[in-house]
Design a protein that fits this description.
mainly beta, two-stranded antiparallel sheet, 11% helix, globular
């Protein structure tokens, strides 16, 4: 699936299979709340958007994560707000 943000890829992890797309800083124009740390992802901050692969990109299932939080999700998981 191609978009202005680039191509999505499937990532496999202990928490399942995820569709993941990089969002470059120049394309990050909204404020999101990261489920990994519960802090804001501000405009201009590169990050990833991820959703369960089985959902094939349902908008309601997409979450924007800081790059470091996404990489560390196996050790930390999402905050209580998102679990």
């Amino acid at each position: 699936m191609g978009t202005a943000f680039g191509m999505s890829r499937v990532e496999h992890g202990p928490d399942g299979e995820w569709m993941v797309r990089n969002v470059p800083a120049a394309q990050a124009t909204k404020i999101y709340r990261c489920p990994g740390c519960d802090h804001e992802i501000r405009p201009g901050i590169a990050h990833v958007v991820a959703w369960p692969e089985a959902e094939q990109g349902g908008v309601a299932d997409r979450r924007h994560w800081h790059n470091g939080c996404w990489s560390a999700r196996g050790r930390r998981g999402p905050t209580r707000r998102w679990s």
